[in-house]
Amino acid sequence: MPLVFFRILGPLEAEAGGRRVPLGGPKPRLLLAALLLQPGVVVSADALTDVLWPGRAPRSAAANLRTYVHGLRRVLGDRIESGAGGYQLHAGPDELDATLAERLVARARAEEAPALLDQAAALWRGEVLEDLPHHHTWTSAVSRLSELRLSVQAERLRFHVSAGRHAEAIVELRGLLAEQPLREELWRLLVVALGASGRQGEALAAYAEAERVLRTELDTEPGVRLRQAVAELDAPAPVCQLPLDLPDFTGRKTGLAELTGLLDGEHPAVVVLSGPPGAGKSALAVHAAHAVRDRYPDGQLYVDLRGTSDSPRRPLDVLAELLHALGVPDAGIPRGLDERAALVRSRLAGRRVCVVLDDAGSAAQVRPLLPGAGAAAVLVTSRGRLPDLTVARHVDVGVLTAAEAMELLARIAGADRVAAEPEAAVRIVAACGRLPLAIRIAGARLSHRREWTLRTLAVRLAGERRRLDELRVGDLAVRASLALSHDQLPRSCARAFRALGGLGPLPFPGWVVAALLGREHADDVLDVLVDAHLVELVGDQPRYRLHLVRCYARELGEPDPDGVRRVVEGYLSLATAERMPVRFFGAAPEPRPADLWCPDRLDDPVAWFAGECRSSNLRWTTVSTGWHGGWRRRSPLASTCAGTTRPGGARTNWRWARPSGQAIHAGRRWCCATSGSSRSTRTITPPRARRSSGRWRCSGASATTRARPSRWPG
User: Fold this and answer.
1) Which of 273, 540, 675, 690 pairs with 280 at a CA distance of 20 to 30 A?
2) Structure pTM?
3) Which residues cross the membrane (predicted)?
C-alpha cells in the first residue's frame, strides 16, 4: 500500500510519495471527500450517489460510480475497497490531517504542551473541504472539525496570554472575532491580553463591543468569566518604562537623599534636575526613580523630550504617549492640547505614578505634562535651570567631588589600577573636570586598553587643545554633548561663550562679559550662560568660571583682540581708581587714559584688590592676554599693580610682579614709549631688598634705580 496523505482541513488534496495526486473532476473529488469524512467506514452506494447527484440520479449512476472509483484506485492504489453494498477508504491515523489534528490536540491537553497545539492549528488551511459543495450528510462531521479548530485556536491563545505573548495573541484574537463575534471566550482572552499590555482603555472598549454584539445578536448579557475579566482591569499590572539603572552609579549621596525625601509617594512632587552637560542628570533621575519604585506602585513612566535636539518633541505628541501608557486607546485620545493635558491630569489624579521627563528644553515643553492632584511625582532633567517652572523644586547637579570622581574612575577602570597609580588617577580626574561623562569615557578607554598605564592617558589628557579628542569612545563624546548646549544659545550668548574660552581657567567678574561684547552691561547674557550651566557661579563677589567646557569654547575660535583689550583696560581702569592704596617705587600713578574701557565704579577698591590678589586673576590677565591686547595696555597694568601695597600690609606686591618674568620689563617698555626716550629716568626697577628675620623688606626705592636685585623677593 503506497504512502498517501489526505487533506480535508481546507481544499481537498492528496499526496503520494510527496507529490500531489491529480484527483480528476468534481464528481471523483466529491466521492473521495465523502469517503474521507468517514475513514474505515463502509459508505453505501446509495449515499454516495446522493452526494454526487443530489435530487435525481441518472440511469447510469451505478456505472458512473464504479468508473469514478476505478479512476481513484489508479492514483491511490487499493485504498478504496468494495464492501457490502458500498465502498470503504483505508487511511491510517497519521495519513489524514483531520485524524492527525485530533490526536495532536488530545496529546497537547494531556501533556499541557502548547507546541502540539501549534502543530495541530497549522494543519488547517481554511474551512473544511472549502472547495467543494457540502452535502447535508456532511454537516455533523464538518461542524465537529470546525469546532475543533476554534477550540484549538482558543487554547493556543490562552497559552500565549498566560506566557505573556500578548501582542501576538491580540492580533490573532481580533482576526478570529471578526469571523466569530459570538465566541465569549475569545472576547475574554482579548480583554485579558489588552489589560495585561497596559491598554486598559482598549480592554474596556473591547468589553463594550462584546456586550453590544451579544445583546444585539443573542439578546443576552456577557457571561461570568467575561465579566470577571473586565472587573480585574481595575487593578492592572503596573507599567515600568524606566531605563536600566547604572550598575556603577557613584556618589550623589546628598542629592539622592534630597530626591528620595521629596518623592515620598504621599504628596505631589515636581523636581527639576539641572546641571552642565555630562553631569549625570539623567543617571541621577533614573537611579532615584528606581530607588522609590515601591512608593509608586501604579507605575513608572519615562519619556525622552529631546529638548536639546534639532527637533524637540511637542507636548501634544508626548501627551498621547502618556495616555497610551495609562491605558487610553487611540479612539479615546482627544485631538487638542488642552483636552489631552486635562485627560492626563484626570488619569494621574487617583494613582501613585512616577514620571521621568528627560532632557527638557524649556518650561513650556514641560508645563502641559504635569499632573494636577493626587500623589504623582515628576522628575525633570534639563541643562537649563527652568526658573519659570515655578511649581517645581529645583536641584542643581554639579560635578562630582574629588573623592566621588576617583571612586567612579576606579569602578570603571579597575580599583587595582587606580590604587597602583594614584597620582596619574588624580591628573585624569582633574583633566576631566570631575565631570561624570568625561570620567566615564576615560574609564572606558582604560578598561578597553589593559596595556595602557594610567599615566599614558593622563599625559594624553594634559593638553587642553587635544583633550576633547581624547574624551571620546563609541557614541559617547564630551564634545558632542557640549555642542548641543552651545547650539541652543542665542547669538550674543554664543559669542560671549566663545570669547570666554580664551581668558584662562581663573574666575572672572561679571563685567568681563560686557567687555568682551563691547557693551556697557551684559548681565542678561551672563544670566543665560549661568542658567545653561555653561558658566559656573563661584565666590561671594560674585565670580564666574568655565569648567571643562572652556576647552570646547577655545576650539570654536580665537578670542577677539578688541574684546581682550577691553578686558585688560577694564582691569587697568579699576587698578588706577582714585581710592586704590598708595604705590611704591617713589612714582606717582600714571593718569588713566581717556579712551580706556571702564566697568562700573567700585564701591570698595581695597576689597576688590584683595580679592584679585587671592584669585591671582590680575596676574593671569597680565600674562595670558599680552599677545591679544598688546603690551600697550598690559604693561601699565603690570607696573601699576606690582607697585601697589598689599591690602592690610606695607609690603610691596613682589609676588604679583613676577608672573612669567615679564611684568617689570613690559612696564619699562611702556614707560619708555610714553616718554619717547629709550632710557627714561621713569623706568621702573625693583628696589633693593634685604632679608631680615626670614622676611623681605624694602630698604629703599627710587624711580631712577637701575640696580637689579640678585634675587627676587618673596
Assistant:
1) 540
2) 0.60
3) none
